[in-house]
Amino acid sequence: MKLLLRIVFALAIVGGLLYFFWYKSKDSNSVISETVSSEKVDMSASNATEESTMNYELIPRDEIYDDNDSLARATLQVIKERYKMYFENFVKNLRSSNIQVVFCWLTTEIGDSETKVQKVGKKYIKELCAANNVIFLDFSEIFMPYKPQDITYMPIDGHLREKGAELVANAMAKVIKQYTTSKSTQTFPDQGRPTLFGDFEPNLDEIRDGGKNLPYRIKTNSQGLRMDYDLTFPKKKQRVLLIGDSGFFFPFLDNDKTGTAKIQAIFPDKEIVNAANWGYSIDDYVTLWDERAKYIEPDIVLLQSTGDDIADQFFSHRLKYSRNKENIKPTDIEKAYYKHYSDMQMGK
Questions:
Q1: What's the pLDDT at 68?
Q2: What is the C-alpha separation between 244 and 226, in angstroms, rounded?
Q3: What are the pLDDT digits (tens) for 312-342?
Q4: Counting Cβ atoms within 10 Å, is residue 204 exposed (0-12), middle (13-18) or buried (19+)?
Q5: Are residues 167 and 251 both part of a single domain?
Q6: What is the DSSP string of 68-107?
Q7: Rounded to an integer, what distance in angstroms lies between the CA atom of residue 257 and that of residue 262?
Q8: Mean pLDDT confidence for 164-179
Q9: What whole-number percentage of the chain has pLDDT above 70?
Q10: Are both 71 and 18 inside the same structural domain?
Q11: Which residue in 77, 163, 194, 347 is a FRET match for 230, CA 20 to 30 A apart?
Q12: How many CA atoms lie less than 13 Å away from 348 in the CB half-sphere?
């Protein structure tokens, strides 16, 4: 009898542990799921669509930029147009509320390390900004005098060290100073305001390392934002919102060492808010804004992106990383290119 009870007890513990790890793996902010893979699409997501349950495991990147491949050229045009649609939608929404928007081009793939993805993407996005009268802030120049290992975690990881975050903060501060009088015209009633403004689990305080053995402390407020206090309304200071991917999330840096914290130290008379998240792209910025971030009532929005965001618009990438996977539907050209790319990988 005692042996039977021990077996039942042991099975209960194992079952509880298995459930815990399964549950955490569904949490996009958990340590377990934080490491980003560039090869496989997770088909187990609870909000998977018919498309996402199909065998779209491959994620092409540089191959889409092959000028000698006519199907690749057609595919690149499709995802460029998709990026343009989301970009113009986002800018239009901000402008309708008299919000000052600044585009921040942030990548350490510069100089001899610049890839075709970045080179083509930069030219296209810079033209988009000019056509939509959006300031284009290029961080490439401030990084040029430094060795990669001085401002990033290379060769382990290409994200910014504290020195790199400081350079970014100082560059953004110069732009913010130009718009000290900018003020949004949109406010929201308290009864219609959501409880979460960002996509992180509220009230986090934990150590992560992203699978890189580069531990950092992440803390969030009760509103799902990576900051140490809650925003209150009506606001009493000018609000500056950073929105982007891991470039603005500043992984591997504690909260008080991020670019956000360094800008806040420069401007104690403002509130610097960060809604960036690991792996996000332009479509995520639009939906995050519509569903949550607009209720922050920012006066200035610093939008961070790179050429990666264009490549990210290929459907198999979005099926893995988009915060709204249920809306991802590939075009016929993308499906044709996916088969073409798959055949190439198998040597056909």
A1: 96
A2: 13
A3: 999 999 999 999 998 899 999 999 999 999 9
A4: middle
A5: yes
A6: T-HHHHHHHHHHHHHHHHHHHHHHHHHHTTT-EEEEEE--
A7: 7
A8: 96
A9: 84
A10: no
A11: 163
A12: 8
Q: How many domains does the chain have?
A: 2
Task: Tell whether pTM > 0.85.
Answer: no
**Is residue 209 included in any domain, yes or no?**
yes
Length of the chain: 348
- Residue pair 248/213 in contact (Cβ under 8 Å)? The answer is no
**Residue 41 domain-assigned (yes or no):** no
Among 45, 22, 23, residue whose Cα is nearest residue 323: 45
Name residue, tokens 């992180």. 200
Residue 127: give the domain boundaries: 62-313
Domain match, 200 and 284 both: yes
The verdict on 304 and 206 lying in the same domain is yes
> Cβ contacts of residue 145 below 8 Å, gap of 6+?
none
Residue 60 preceded by cis peptide, ω within 30: no
Place of tokens 């889409």: 64
Answer yes or no: is 329 within a domain: no
For residue 250, the tally of other CB atoms under 10 A from its CB is 29
